[in-house]
Design a protein that fits this description.
Number of helices: 3
Mean pLDDT: 93
Structural class: alpha/beta
Radius of gyration: 16 Å
Bound molecules: inosinic acid, magnesium ion
Largest sheet: 6 strands, mixed
Strand order of the largest sheet: 4-3-2-5-6-7
Order of helices and strands: EHEHEEEHEEEE
Number of strands: 9
């Protein structure tokens, strides 16, 4: 691992900065091949996906544009309810465009299901999903995710854009948060 200092609230590093950059490069290459001759429009879901989307965009070998959407999940805290509200909508129209939804993490998949439904309603030309992380054990939906970075265990992870109470987004690695920090078991 590179000489990054481990944050005292992190129990374990799952993916190092080097592993992350290598995987982002692979994903960007794959997307560039699949989208050759087209200009994908990245829809980055704020705030967690912002670092991943920025790295991905820089690695793409096809021209691409980017826009941002922010959503919040209703309900009781940690558990996703699947009822999602738009906090900040896209700036540009997406009708007729090839869209790639860029997400930080797919946990239950309920947020993803809602956001993809919303984008499809706007009659995009095509829609693919690119998620940095996913939790296979927590998944409740069977939506196709074409581009996936890494799988993580069913535990709370932070870093590389992902937060707990808005903290830890700037960590250059993905780590497991110490359970005593978030009051878990
Ligand atoms: P879902 O609707 O259950 O798939 O939840 C997805 C959203 O919950 C993600 O976009 C994150 O904002 C948040 N989330 C889920 N698991 C984690 C985690 O381990 N760390 C940080 N955020 C998470
Ligand atoms: Mg999020």
């Amino acid at each position: 691992m590179s000489p990054v200092r481990l944050h005292p609230d992190i129990a374990q590093v799952l993916y190092t900065p080097e592993q992350i950059q290598a995987r982002v490069k692979e994903l960007a290459r794959q997307i560039s091949t699949d989208y050759e001759g087209r200009e994908p429009h990245l829809v980055c879901v704020l705030r967690g996906a912002v670092i991943f989307a920025a790295d991905l965009l820089r690695r793409l070998e096809v021209p691409a544009t980017i826009d941002f959407i922010a959503v919040s999940s209703y309900g009781n805290g940690a558990e996703s309810s699947g009822i999602v509200r738009i906090e900040k909508d896209l700036q540009d129209r997406i009708e007729g465009r090839p869209v790639i939804l860029v997400e930080d993490i797919i946990d239950s998949g309920l947020t993803l299901a809602y956001v993809t439904g919303l984008l499809e309603d706007r009659r995009v030309a095509s829609l693919d999903v690119c998620a940095f992380l996913h939790k296979p054990e927590a998944r409740k939906t069977d939506q196709e995710v074409r581009y996936l970075g890494f799988a993580v265990p069913n535990t709370f992870v932070v870093g590389y854009g992902l937060d707990y109470a808005q903290r830890y987004r700037g960590l250059p690695y993905v780590g497991v948060l110490r359970s005593d920090v978030y009051g878990g078991g």
